[in-house]
Amino acid sequence: MSVREIRGWTQATPLPHAPSYVNGVINLRGAVLPIVDLAARLGFPRTVPTARSVIIVVRVEMQLFGLLVDAVSDILTITDELLQPTPDLASDLAKTFVRGVMAIEGRMISLIATDNVLPQFQSAA
């Protein structure tokens, strides 16, 4: 329920000293939207944007951000009954990002914990 919209790839403006998985920011109807390369954030090689690449706009609590992904092939509505726990063989870090897995139409699909994609920043006191 955190997905707000899916939009075509837009080149991001880089930010100095941003984490390696942050591509930069884009203007989304007057708001500054940080763009996170989801593959890089999950420990995979960085995404090389193509014509099929999209940005999934996500809201977690009060933070709005975009996830750069290779493509979107389907939009699914899932139920808790379909979701199985992340396998015990997965590392604790993998379990941080994957809420669970589902077998749908012969495919294994991971449900990403969008609330864990952005790091928890400590506010300066």
Q: What is the N-to-C succession of helices and strands? A: EEEHEEHEE
Overall geometry: globular
Please state the structural category: mainly beta
What's the total number of strands?
Answer: 7
Low-confidence stretches: 121-125
What gyration radius follows from the Cα positions, in whole Å? 15 Å
Distance between the termini: 33 Å
The overall average pLDDT, rounded, is 82
List the helices and strands and how they pair.
Layout: E1 3-8, E2 22-28, E3 31-37, H1 38-41, E4 54-60, E5 63-69, H2 92-97, E6 98-104, E7 107-112
Characterization of the model:
The chain has 125 residues and is mainly β. Helices cover 8% and strands 38% of the residues. The chain is built from 2 helices and 7 strands, in the order E-E-E-H-E-E-H-E-E. The protein has helices spanning 38-41, 92-97, and strands spanning 3-8, 22-28, 31-37, 54-60, 63-69, 98-104, 107-112. The chain has a 5-stranded mixed sheet. The chain has a two-stranded antiparallel sheet with strand order 6-7. Strand 6 (98-104) and strand 7 form a beta hairpin. The longest helix has 6 residues, at 92-97. The radius of gyration is 15 Å and the shape is globular. The relative contact order is 0.18. The model is unreliable at 121-125 (pLDDT under 50).
Entry summary:
The chain has 125 residues and is mainly beta.
Descriptive labels:
five-stranded mixed β-sheet; 2 helices; 8% helix; two-stranded antiparallel sheet; mainly beta
